[in-house]
Amino acid sequence: xxxxxxxxxxxxxxxxxxxxxxxxxxxxxxxxxxxxxxxxxxxxxxxxxxxxxxxxxxxxxxxxxxxxxxxxxxxxxxxxxxxxxxxxxxxxxxxxxxxxxxxxxxxxxxxxxxxxxxxxxxxxxxxxxxxxxxxxxxxxxxxxxxxxxxxxxxxxxxxxxxxxxxxxxxxxxxxxxxxxxxxxxxxxxxxxxxxxxxxxxxxxxxxxxxxxxxxxxxxxxxxxxxxxxxxxxxxxxxxxxxxxxxxxxxxxxxxxxxxxxxxxxxxxxxxxxxxxxxxxxxxxxxxxxxxxxxxxxxxxxxxxxxxxxxxxxxxxxxxxxxxxxxxxxxxxxxxxxxxxxxxxxxxxxxxxxxxxxxxxxxxxxxxxxxxxxxxxxxxxxxxxxxxxxxxxxxxxxxxxxxxxxxxxxxxxxxxxxxxxxxxxxxxxxxxxxxxxxxxxxxxxxxxxxxxxxxxxxxxxxxxxxxxxxxxxxxxxxxxxxxxxxxxxxxxxxxxxxxxxxxxxxxxxxxxxxxxxxxxxxxxxxxxxxxxxxxxxxxxxxxxxx
Length: 545
Prior knowledge:
Helix content is 25%, strand content 15%. Mean pLDDT is 96; it is low at 1-5. With 545 residues, the chain is an alpha/beta fold. It is built from 16 helices and 19 strands. The chain folds into three domains: 5-107 and 181-208 and 271-454, TIM Barrel (Alpha-Beta Barrel); 114-166, Alpha-Beta Complex (Oligo-1,6-glucosidase, domain 2); 468-542, Sandwich (Immunoglobulin-like). Strand 2 (52-55), helix 4 (83-95) and strand 3 (99-104) form a beta-alpha-beta unit. Helix 6 packs parallel to helix 7. The chain has helices at residues 10-13, 35-40, 42-48, 83-95, 114-119, 181-196, 249-262, 280-284, 301-304, 309-322, 341-345, 347-357, 387-391, 436-440, 446-459, 461-465, and strands at residues 16-19, 52-55, 99-104, 133-134, 155-158, 163-166, 201-204, 270-273, 296-297, 330-332, 363-367, 467-470, 478-485, 488-495, 501-503, 511-516, 524-525, 530-532, 537-542.
């Protein structure tokens, strides 16, 4: 598909920027980021060149899983501010031409949510069937063999009512029963609450989890020991065919999309789902046969890919090949659950990865701080916060390292909180070198590179809406591709190696380097003889044929 750039929608043209609110900007100096802090940084985000803010959960929550255990779907956690603050954020963002999407957590609530408090109070209350309650098997064992992502069985015994309840994640996160129409209506009412407050869309947390096998059948063993994109311990011992992704999920997604579409008369509202599926044909079903489900299922293929051109080319071509006609692709390098790209592949390669992300067809998502080259921070055990890291130890699933405070300037606490405040997670030791203020006016900084790259993408229809095609060439260390739009051709050449590479590309016309990851090349070049330094990427405007 090659859409007319003028006909692409805001969420297709734009770049999503994920904000983890706890870690972005602390306005009231309690060590935790908040909505007023985000508001103070809207001008920065506008200048950066992103288009859409995605806010991780800001709902009232006991914070067993840092907001993904929701105790009220229609309010703001006082830790982050008030509904009035949220309304101000929406208004101020829209005034700057920015869009706002929020996390929505439909698979499970908090065990402190009034719904679950009532549900567990007896066996015969109106909310009992809002969750999954089951007797033990006759031999006294668990209802089935399902496992929690966060370690151990997915069933927790309730002494009061003498039954088990299901939790795909923490025991403090009981799964909601979406086969109960009252549950579905309550959740859709919550979505409408935020649409009425003028949000532009939703990121749906673990969207493929919400419909399970109605018979609660056991999962079969994972005999071939296949894993997703990272090892998850005991959870990998099963094939998750009955606890995740039952076909009825597509019915719910169509109903959810219809609700969004009813609010899309003034401007399109948008949905993106967290879908950890790497069989691209199966992944693509979440767009819907008639493109009537999610606008986009998140594509996490790059996160698990080895840093080599063959692995990344395989993801790109797999995704492009699986897309239904008219569907829009997307790419992401990191988020609040994954180690930062600069730590996974190194700071120089991270620039090359950013160039890749922002020159592919589709909607890219940037994680806060990646634009300045933030990296993971080693968290000592006594300061560890993440329950996943505490429950499943020894395989590196803890998520604290990538959630540390945003580094704004060289003052103590990096300008995230006032000096002397105990921040919820420690600030990186090298914040005096890696921060917004130090990089803002440095012509060679990662922030300058990110801003120039974002500006080029926005100004160049070929880079955000044009046709993608891989350039077949002999150098196994480089990925090269063309972006074409209305006769205009752009060449992107990326060196995945730390060694210099010489490319001899089957391209006849000359070109001009418009941007290098080194920020020091803008010369004319001949693609038949193109030299790339180690870890260098170049965007080249080809001459007209």
